[in-house]
Amino acid sequence: MPPQHKLYWVFHYLLLAAFMAFAMFPLFWLLKVSITPNDLLYSEGVRLWPSRITFEHYASVVKHTRFLLFFRNSLMVSSATAVLATLVAGAAGYGFSRFHFRGKFFIVGLMLITQMFPLVMIVAPIFRLLSPLGLTNSLSGLVIVYTAFNVPFASFLMQSFFDAIPPDLEEAALIDGANRFTALCKIIVPLTLPGLAATIGFVFTAAWSELLFALMLNSSADVSTFPVGLLAFVSKFSVDFGQMMAAGVLALVPVCGFFLFIQRYLVQGLTAGAVKG
Amino acid sequence: MAAISIRGVHKNYGDVPVLRGIDLDIQNGEFVALVGPSGCGKSTLLRLIAGLEPMTGGDIRIGERLVNDLAPKDRDIAMVFQSYALYPHMTVRDNLTFSLKLRGVSRERIAAAVRAASAKLELTELLDRKPAALSGGQRQRVAMGRAMVREPQAFLFDEPLSNLDARLREQMRYEIRKLQRELGTTSIYVTHDQIEAMTMADRIVALNDGVVQQVGTPNELYDDPANVFVAGFMGSPAMNFIDGVLQDHSPAPAFAAVMVGDTPLGLVKRPAGMSAGQRVLVGLRPERIALQSAAAGVPAEVDLVEPTGVAMILRLRLAGQPLRLFTTERLDVKIGERVGLRVHAPDLLLFDPGSGLRLR
Predict the structure, then answer these.
(1) A175 contacts B73? CB cut-off 8 A
(2) Which top CATH class is A65-273?
(3) Which residues of B touch A191 (CB under 8 A)?
(4) N or C terminus of chain A: which is more exposed, having fewer CB within 10 Å?
(5) Residue ranges of the domains in chain A?
């Protein structure tokens, strides 16, 4: 890195700090409200930190609501979706990246079009489709719908990662004695791990925070996911902000943990191909 | 080791022909360079031999086997890529042994092959490093090693030195050639660098526009080019081409005088079917021209003097046409000076101005 003027770095970090503050403030507020006792919530208004803190919201969320069940449901749905969508998208992305075939342009176009509709528009038809199959009020139904919706974007994501791997490597493997599948498993997949991690992360988060379909397709609380569960804190006359925020903070934990885990692959993934080598 | 025979090979990309009927026989153990400008089809031909792309037509045999429909892995060839194509997530050792492991070779034999190859290529110290931690020359050697351990029927090289700096390229040129001589493996070497082709190859195949222009030893292509393309491509500085006219030489009707404007260049054997007054393209290598006194020689004027240290390039004008002279002598000439040229008549190569073919 070339030596820069000191002022440049001051400005650089100030800008980053401002952005961080802007991006993190809602999360901070989430945390703040979740530990503010109910009697102080409205009286202390916009104070940055409450004069007293409490963890009773957390206790009541875990003890008195079905939050843990929702949590488990969400975890199952999101994990299954992430794995399934990434497998399908990986295969599709590899195909788009490496093969020329008739109708490729058409298929890519079709996949783009699916991304253009507002989801509200297709809730009813999807419900009609799933209902006779017994897939409403079920977690597998959600997994299927989420997978279908995430595959197009995830495919393009994976394709860009495959594109970044020079075909020479695969050809070298073919000459070295591998067939296409062996070359894929031994050469391409290990090099695409960052891409796979990024895609899994993307799909997992999308499924984790999805509300519309989870709400519309599943009416039974037994198969509700966590975003639907959050709605339960909104009653006819009031909103239990403390508990809602506490549940929100709890819901962030696995996502944060997940990203912490894949973070090193992600950073690799985003910079892969930037360096010749 | 095996001979490679290529018969009537065609390749089209869509409607665009890239190779138009290539016929080539490569002897067992021979080092053949495919040379030509970018886009001439040389790399495509190599990829067809490797089986990385399907042919549009023709036959390729490696040894006795027809390999048209064989997958690359079944052709028993090894390839060294321009980018080296080392597997970045594997150590040097794993890169070397990848092919042997895939083929189920026993552990002892793999270890022995790695020992032999790494000793030969001085890779022993580097075996546990990953490609990212190697220099360009070291990567190049690993790529060579990966090809070597398999003991394949043939080596295919796809411009393997073009990513190296000039000094290293010279060094690797020597190392590759030496290694190939020791192993005696049939090799096909694609390059756009005629110096590489000249210095390394037993035979050179000059390709242009998907057609073989000439096949021969380096000296054959240099001294006796079949057409203007080969004459112009081989050699640096490149051959001079001057527009000339043939004139009758009455004392000996079998000969004709080559005229450039009003200046006679020399007497050549009259090419078959050529009569007086016909236009020809005269090819003359810059290093085959010498200076002599302005009164005695072919008159020319100095346009520019380019000293290169080891030699000098004089840019001249001969009857209004540009001409280069290359000499290792330190000449004392000035820009604008009138000089006399000495040209040896057998060095005048005549070409048809229309077709570019050599006139003999």
Answers:
(1) yes
(2) mainly alpha
(3) 88-89
(4) N
(5) 1-54, 65-273
